[in-house]
Amino acid sequence: MQFDSNHIYHIFNRGNNSQQLFFNRKNYVFFLEKIKQYNLPYADILAWCLMPNHFHLMVYVNKVEMPVERVTLNDIDQVTSSHLTNKRKLNNSIAIMLRSYTRAIQKQENRTGSLFQSRTKAICLTQIEGITPAWFQTRYGTSINIIDSEKEYPQVCFNYIHLNPVKGGIVKGQKDWEFSSYLDYVGKRNGKLINKNRANEFGLRI
To answer: What CA–CA distances, in Å, run from 168 to 18, 42, 156, 197?
Structure first.
């Protein structure tokens, strides 16, 4: 994963071989605590959804690297240069988050091996290099359909994340799934994980 500050990213991963990630409600809550611990120092969370075998985060990156007050052996599997300089990058922090959660599930389920797929993906939604705009033919020739990508792509992703439980057939309505930020946006819950003010800056709406 490669991050740049002042951009929005869609971060996601799933269980290795599509296996289950969350086995009970406490697992979902524990993972949300890990998100808060390892992501909020770097980024504002705009949307999130935890599914039984995968997760989605939509974040606005404020800083790609930050000082680390202390690093313990429980936090890391191996020492890297970022730890030696008492600094940690966002991508390292996400990796540590997933390893920490994996260890907890391995202990809970009395199992070994990978829990998540080896690569967590992060797609930038506010940089459109390499994306070909839609085009169409008119009587005057070819016209390019130019959109405001900084609003369009984030809103599409925002909607997609919140619709995941419905599309996955888990619930009939978005309000019926506890483990997404949808309930916070519609006023059914006052969660502290998302930054509504930042979401409003990009015009993100339910």
So the answer is: 13, 30, 17, 29
